[in-house]
């Protein structure tokens, strides 16, 4: 992953680090590596989402471990210098700067450490479609609903999960959401 870190310009790497800090502070649900990767690729750098996600996981682990151990900026940089001599110089500079500015703000409470690792819902999109025909059936006229959920997994990576439902399945799905809303009103 260190060789891929060399590819990422300093400003994009700084943005990645900032987003990771915000995620660790529970200010944003996760790091949208797909969107950031697309912007990096648009600037002419060849990197894929998988590699960027690995880098984000490494930096997230680094920051959360440093927070858990209450490391100062100097201790973090010294640890990086001893353990990971392959890190690009610009990456170490960005990590130092971001940790110096915002590292102390990361709160690692016992509740957060013991919390179950589940994803966090970010957004939902849906669309209604009609399948008109296929190569095996000339006339379908079959309505369906496509739902796309945007979810941040426990490491902070934001992914899209899509599925299709028939109209009766969607009506049941909607009914369950209404039931959840009714229960939430009583809380």
From TrEMBL:
Extract the coiled-coil ranges from the record: none
Q: Name one Pfam family in it.
A: COMM_domain
- One function term, GO molecular function aspect: NF-kappaB binding
| Limits of the COMM domain | 120-187
Instruction: Give the UniProt family note.
Output: Belongs to the COMM domain-containing protein 6 family.
Physiological role: Scaffold protein in the commander complex that is essential for endosomal recycling of transmembrane cargos; the commander complex is composed of the CCC subcomplex and the retriever subcomplex. May modulate activity of cullin-RING E3 ubiquitin ligase (CRL) complexes. Down-regulates activation of NF-kappa-B. Inhibits TNF-induced NFKB1 activation.
Protein name stated in the entry: COMM domain-containing protein 6
Organism of origin: Himantopus himantopus
Taxonomic lineage of the native organism: Eukaryota, Metazoa, Chordata, Craniata, Vertebrata
């Amino acid at each position: 992953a260190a060789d891929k870190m060399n590819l990422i310009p300093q400003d994009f790497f700084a943005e990645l680090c900032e987003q990771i800090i915000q995620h660790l502070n529970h200010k944003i649900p996760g790091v949208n590596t797909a969107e950031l990767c697309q912007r990096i690729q648009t600037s002419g750098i060849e990197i894929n989402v998988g590699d960027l996600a690995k880098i984000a996981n490494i930096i997230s682990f680094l920051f959360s471990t440093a927070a858990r151990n209450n490391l100062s900026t100097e201790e973090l940089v010294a640890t990086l210098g001893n353990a990971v001599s392959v890190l690009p110089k610009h990456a170490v500079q960005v990590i130092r700067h971001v940790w110096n500015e915002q590292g102390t703000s990361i709160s690692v409470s016992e509740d957060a450490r013991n919390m179950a690792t589940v994803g966090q819902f970010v957004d939902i999109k849906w669309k209604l479609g009609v399948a008109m025909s296929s190569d095996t059936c000339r006339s379908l006229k079959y309505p369906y609903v496509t739902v796309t959920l945007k979810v941040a997994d426990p490491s902070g990576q934001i992914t899209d999960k899509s599925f299709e439902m028939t109209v009766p399945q969607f009506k049941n799905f909607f009914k369950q959401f209404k039931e959840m809303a009714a229960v939430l009103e009583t809380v």
